[in-house]
Structures are given as C-alpha cells and as structure tokens.
Amino acid sequence: MFNTKRNKLLIVLIFTVLLSVICNGQTTIGASVVLDPQDITLLIDETKQISVLFRGPLTQSIQFNFSNEHDDFVKISPSLISIDAPKDGFIDKGVLVELEPLSPGQFDLVGYIIPAGLIDDAKAFIRVTVANSGTLIYVSIVIGWMYFVAWTISFWPQMIINFRRKSVVGLSFDFLALNLLGHTLYATFNCALYWNDDIEQEYFHRNPHGLNPVIANDVAFSLHASLATFLTVLQCFFYERGEQRVSYIAQGILSLFAIVIIISGILIGTGHWHWLDFLYTLSYIKLAITLIKYIPQAVLNFRRKSTVGWSIENILLDFTGGSLSMLQMLLNAYNYDDWASIFGDPTKFGLGLFSVLFDIVFIVQHYVLYRNRTELKTLEEESSNSAAVGSKSSLP
Question: What distance separates the 2 farthest-apart alpha carbons in the chain?
C-alpha cells in the first residue's frame, strides 16, 4: 500500500514538472528569429531592405539588436527592434530593416536577443557583401567560367597527341601518377562535401555562418579531371613508352601519402576524427601534390633536351586558366576590398602563381631551349635507347 501511494505521488510530481516545463518553456524552445535573406550583395550608394522575422510562442517583451561590429561597412536602420509580448502568447511578425553600405567588404552581420537565450536566434545573421562595382561582379563571373573551360579542356590535348603518335614517350609517368592521385582525392573531397548531408552538417556546425565551399562546378571539374587523367594512364599500357616508368622517388612519395590516408582512416574508425577531418587531410595531400607534380616533367624535358610527346597545348590552356584565376582573385580583392584573402591567406593565390610559373618554364623549354628538336629525331633516339636496353618497362 505504501509503495502504491508513493508511485502515485511520483507520477503526479513528474506530470507537474512536465506541465511546468511546457507552459514556461514556450519562449525557450518555440519562438525564433530569422533574417531574410541570409545572403545579400550591395553596391556602394545602393540601399536595400531585409526582413527580421519573429515567429513562435512568446510570453514576454524582447529586444533585437544588431551588432555594431561592422559600423564602418554598413549603416543599419533601425539597429534596435523592440517587440512587445503578444496578447495571445504567439508572435508572427516581420520588421523591415534598411541597409546602407558605407565601404566595400564581406562580413557576417549578426543580431542578438535581449534577454539572451529567450528565443532561438541561431539564424539571426546575414552574410553581407558590399562591392565597389556591379560590372566587376559580372566580369568576375565571366572570368570564372573562362578558366573553368580552359582547365577542363586542358586534359584532352595530351590524350590526342598520345593517340596520334601511338606513343607516350616524353610524358612523365611520375607526373601522371601524382596527378591521378591528386585529382582523385580532390574529387572525393568535393563529392563528399557536396552530396553527403552528415558531412555538410558537420561543416556547418564548425562554420555556423558559412556556406558550403563546394559548388556543382567543383564536382564536375574534379570528376572530369580524374577520368581524363585515368584515361591518359591507360594509354601508357597500350602505346610505345620506351624505358619510362614510375620512379622510386615517386613511388616513395605515393607510399607516404598512402600511409597518411590509412592512418587518417584508422582515426575515423576509432572515433577520434570526424569524416570532415579525413576530407581535410585529403585536401592537404592534394595541395602538396600540386606543389611537386610538375617537377618530374620539367626534369624529364631537361634530360631529353626535348618536349616532344609533352603537349604544349595542355600547358597553354593551363597557363590561361591559372592566369585568369589569379586575375579573378585580384578583381574580387579590389571590388570587395578584401586583400586579406590574398595576402592574409596566400595559399590559393600562391598555388595558382606556382602553377603558372611552372607553365612558363615549360613554355620556355618548348619554344626557346628545345625548339629545334623534331619528333622524328626524338623518336628514333628513344627507340634506339629502348632497343639497346631490351624489353620495355611497364608501370609498376
């Protein structure tokens, strides 16, 4: 009997607590504030309006304030919004706010609620881009498509030359091996972050005000690059290749990268890393490959004193794409007064510049240093060397 009474009392107590949480927790878990849109581009001397939307259960008055952190970039009117508690305990209201840009820049404009924590303000922010010129925005977009096309097409001249010559003599296998791994890792990173919801949510968790850095163009380019490089590797198994093989140095580098990937996979399996950390590791390996992959081809050209078998069209297209990419970065830096994107974090610009400098080396080799080397002479020498050694080497 005593236990029955105690159980009934416990049930009543739990029910009372739950009812209290539901009644008093309306404002904590029900109401929210959202800025619409959450991404806006403004031009100097242009004014636009955004909406501050309040919706949900609300039982007391609140104030919504915009942070004054970016007062040098934009003037906000009104910067403070007072909301009285609705009589029926539920709010569904939008307030227009005017943004007047003062100087170019890119930043997150964040709002906050007083009293803090009373309603959900996770989406009380807007990504603001203030530009000097609308024309430069469209010029930048056109340039982006131009270097996308140039880089995409650049993979095909090498395959065409190999097909016509029925030979891959003159094409560095070290370059091909590194390039195939690099583009495969890049495609893995892009596809996972673009299509996998769990990985995307983890990215947003770490970057609450960020956008997914991978867009459809990135996925399409990386998949195409991986396929084109793979097809070029296949040509090496069927066409004349002389004594060429993947060097022991390149094999060592590839093995080192493989070990890093395996260790990263173990960290995933043991729960120490999230999949996003694994993808970041792949991206770092891709960056390292970009820094070193051109060296074997430049050395091979130097040793042969010839660029025959190495597509200069590939280099010219790559040079065009790299130059346009850097031009776009410079235009955007000026248009948004965002020079820190270049000088504060020089990785992307530096890699682009590094690739262009190697393209210049290849152009000098082809048109200046070894311009008189004919294909017939080079092929005869390669065949002679191959015959002296014996049978052809194969890809390991």
Answer: 108
Q: Could you tell me which of 175, 262, 188, 256 has the C-alpha nearest to residue 226? A: 188
Taken in order 257, 263, 266, 267, the sign of the CA dihedral is negative
Q: What's the rounded mean pLDDT across residues 310-325?
A: 92
User: Rounded to two decimals, what is the model's pTM?
Assistant: 0.76
| Pairing mode, strands 62-66 and 105-114 | antiparallel
Which residue's entry shows tokens 């970041």? 280
Give the 3-state secondary structure of the chain: CHHHHHHHHHHHHHHHHHHHHHHHCHHHHCCEEEEECCEEEEECCCCEEEEEEEEEECCCCEEEEECCCCCCCEEEECCEEEECCCCCCEEEEEEEEEEEECCCEEEEEEEEEECCCCCEEEECEEEEEEECCHHHHHHHHHHHHHHHHHHHHCCHHHHHHHHHHCECCCCCHHHHHHHHHHHHHHHHHHHHHHHCHHHHHHHHHHCCCCCCCCCHHHHHHHHHHHHHHHHHHHHHHHCECCCCCCCHHHHHHHHHHHHHHHHHHHHHHCCCCCHHHHHHHHHHHHHHHHHHCHHHHHHHHHHHCCCCCCCHHHHHHHHHHHHHHHHHHHHHHHHCCCCHHHHHCCHHHHHHHHHHHHHHHHHHHHHHHCCCCCHHHHHHHHHHHHHHHCCCCCCC
Residues 6+ apart with CB under 8 A from 283: 185, 186, 189
Both tokens of 172, joined, read 């560095």
Q: What is the mean pLDDT of residues 156-162?
A: 95
**Helices 134-153 and 312-335 sit at what angle, rounded to 10 degrees?**
160
Hey, what are 30's tokens?
Answer: 């029900």
Q: Which amino acid is at 320?
A: T
Is the pLDDT at 120 greater than 70, yes or no? yes
- Using CA atoms, how far apart are residues 361 and 297, in angstroms rounded to an integer? 11
